[in-house]
Each structure stands twice: as C-alpha cells, then as structure tokens.
Hints:
Layout: H1 3-59, H2 67-74, H3 83-114, H4 127-140, H5 147-167, H6 176-199, H7 202-213, H8 224-239, H9 242-249, H10 252-257, H11 262-284, H12 290-301, H13 308-329, H14 338-363
Amino acid sequence: MSVTQANRAGGAASALEGSGLRRAVAGIRSARRVTARHDALVVTALALVVLVLVVLTLCIGATITPIGDVLRVLSGQTVPGASFTVGELRLPRALGGLLVGLAFGAAGCLFQSVLRNTLASPDVIGISSGAGLAAVVAIAVFGASGLVVSVAALGGALVTALLIFVLSAGRSTTGYRFVLIGIAIGTAAQAVIGYVITRSDIADAQQALVWLTGSLSRSLWDQLPAVAIALIVLLPFALFSGRTVDTLRLGDDTATALGARVQRDRVALVLLAVALIAVGTSLTGPVAFVAFLAGPIATRMLRSSRLLVPASALMGAAILLAGDFIGQHLIPGVTLPVGVVTGAIGAPYLLWLLARGGRRSAATGGVS
C-alpha cells in the first residue's frame, strides 16, 4: 500500500470514527431532551392535579358552590351565601393545604435524597414528634396558642434534628443506624407527649390532641399569614436546590470529587428541611406520611432527578389536599382529619418498605 493510499485509509477511518462519535453525542442529547420533556410534563401534570384539588376544595363542602360564584368571590365580589363559605372557610383551608403540602413534600424529598435513605423522612425519624412534643408542652403546660405554638414546634424540630445528628456522630448518616436513632427519639417523644397530656386538664388535653391529629380545620385567616410568609421564603430555596441534591445523591466520595462540600451542603439542606417541616407542622400538626410518600412516588414518575424536589413538593400538596377532601366526604356526616386518611394510606407502604429492607438485609448477611 502506497503512502497516499494509507493516508486515504486513515482519513476514512477518522471520518467514520468522527461520524460515529457525532451520532453517539447526538443520541445522548436526544435522550436528554426526551427525558427533560417527560419530566417537565410530569411536573406540569402534577401542578394541574393540585389546581383541580384546590378548585374542588373551594367548590364542594356542605353545600356545592358553582365555579362562577367561586371566581366572583376570588375577584373580591360579594356573593350572598358564598362569600363566607368560600372566602372565610374553604379558601384558607385550600391555601393552608397547598402551602403545607408543598413544604412537607419538599422536606421529605430533601431528607430522603440528602441522607440517601427512603426511611429518612421527618415523620418517621421523629422530627415531627419532636415538634409535636414542644407544641404540646407549650399548649398544655404554658397555655400557649397561635404564634407561640408555631415557634415552639420550630424549636422542637430543630432540637430533635440536632439530637439525632449528635447521637449518630461518627456513624454513617445514610444507613439504618441513623434511621433507628431517629425512630427511638420519636418514640421517646411520643411517650412524653402521652405523659404531658395525662397530666394536663381536659381543655388543654383536648386542644393538644386535636393539634396532634393533623388537620386543616385550623387553617383560618388569622393563623395563615405568618406560616405563608415563612414558607414563601423557605420554599424557593428548596425548589432550586436540585443541583446540590443531585450531587449529594451520588455519594460522599463522588460529590467530593466533583467539588461539593458534602458536610456543609448536607447540614444546610437538612436544616432547611427541618424548618419546612416545622413551619408546616405549626399550622396543621404532624400530618402523617405526607413527607414520607411524596418523594418515592415522584421518583417513580420521573426519569431523572433534575426536577425531583419540585415534583415531590407538588406530590405532597396533592396528597394533603386529596386526603383532606377524602376525609371531608368519604363518610357522610363525619369529617375525618387529614392525618387519619394519610396515616391509613402511608402505614401499609411503610410496612412494605420495612419488609423489603429486611429481605435485602438478610440477602446481604445483615450489611445495609
């Protein structure tokens, strides 16, 4: 083979190789566009579901209000019979469910993603119980109400989160040990809650028990603004934390190699999640399993984790609004708190996760 022929053959091989590389790059870009389009459609669909649930909450109650009357009330017009039921009762309930559901969904996703454990939800590892204990003490011991109870719940959640981190210091924060420490603290908090309630008078005990059940019935205009302002400040930080969450989901070693400050980012996101769950809990009480369910369901619907936090937040809002709607209308003449409905849905899922985790642990010889 002459030199010219060799050069031509080499050029042809380079051209083929370059063409193959371009096709591979084009294929990867096309797959990314398809994934991004799918995930955007999922988030849009979830937003529409939440909007439909808000409309149903505004229209359907003890009486059915036409959508036209609802729109006139929302525009500021006075509609006899509808201005009070829609404007004073149903609208703050719908807004409260929307905001708290977004907060619980985003908080649960942050906990589960940053700690890389599906069971690491704030209502499973005891942070909600810590917030509940502080609120019950404020109500039953000090006779507090309103904003003081909210501040107490926030403090209880922060102290509980700090206690879990301290007790698991030097251990893995992504394994079952961290979760078990949280469950133990949550169980202890529940025991103290029971003791405080038995030692308080009937009126305070009843108020504390209603608060602990988890309900949107207390979402009234005089309690909503402070919670709304806090969540409007906190939620954007959670919704736009996707890149950091993505990096931490890769594991400590990989995240460090990519330039992330793992411990600093993890602590910051966990504190953000604790604040979200505490502010939400201060309005509705500890609504069971909303934070626990939202993230895993959103994960199964998405093809990537880029929009996982917004999708989880919307899923949390959908679960909370749907649970409240079911609780109001499932049994005629009986209104179930939303915490009862979400607890009935979430408990079987938690049992399934624990059973699956047990089988996986047995298969790996107890290494988890």
